Q: What sequence folds into this?
């Protein structure tokens, strides 16, 4: 029985290692420019599946002077694009927490508040062949489950990421 368990463990480890070997990179860390501007970390958990974690800051002086700090995580499933090595498209979703404050039309500071939401994601991901650089661009609409003001759906979020990759 011990030999069977040992053999089974070796086979599982080989399958797991092979799934990473087929991926262009295993993890990446960098910056996300967009709404919000954020630090970004992406970790592949299989050949096609990844988890991305972002933490960032955004200030919108136009509409009531909102200032946000956002923390979120997304699951992404990647599909290769035939004919272009290193290029994939992905879809997925996740959750986020948003901590914010704002000023009213007369410049009065309003109390801080917290919002929680679910988001979708769709985008493209490119890993350069000879250098440890990954670029991605995506759209991330958000449906807020709880937010301290009237908006519950924000379709305008997204960004462009540049990350240093690790094997």
A:
């Amino acid at each position: 029985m011990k030999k069977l368990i040992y053999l089974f463990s070796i086979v599982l480890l080989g399958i797991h290692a092979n799934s990473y070997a087929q991926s262009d990179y295993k993890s990446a860390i960098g910056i996300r420019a967009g709404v919000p501007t954020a630090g970004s970390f992406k970790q592949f958990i299989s050949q096609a599946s990844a988890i991305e974690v972002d933490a960032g800051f955004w200030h919108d002086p136009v509409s009531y002077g909102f200032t946000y700090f956002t923390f979120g995580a997304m699951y992404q499933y990647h599909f290769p694009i035939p004919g272009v090595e290193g290029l994939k498209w992905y879809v997925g979703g996740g959750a986020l927490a948003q901590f914010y404050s704002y000023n009213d039309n007369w410049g009065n500071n309003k109390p801080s508040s917290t919002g929680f939401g679910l988001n979708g994601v769709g985008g493209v991901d490119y890993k350069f062949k000879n250098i440890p650089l990954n670029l991605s661009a995506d759209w991330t609409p958000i449906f807020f489950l709880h937010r301290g003001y009237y908006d519950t759906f924000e379709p305008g979020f997204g960004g462009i990421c540049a990350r240093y990759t690790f094997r």
